Task: structure prediction
Amino acid sequence: MPKHLMIEGRVQGVGYRASFAAQARVLGLAGWVRNRRNGAVEACVSGSAPAEEAIIVWAHQGPPSAQVRQVQVKDADPASVVDGPFAILPTV
Result:
């Protein structure tokens, strides 16, 4: 089941999206990541259960300069994940 993540804290301006996307690609995940205007980072991932769990664990740390305060995870609608390479989407 695809997962939707909302990551809060000091997660913008620290390379979080690019690092998240790179980690997702290493794990073989499909999906996307983007900044939110409220300062959070949002992501939707789909792949094997171990890969999804690994990116959730990674999301709690993020890149070295991030300070993650909270990661909310919920099941995502399978239609919200597009096929193809993991994408960095525009801010919403």
Observations:
- The longest strand covers residues 67-75.
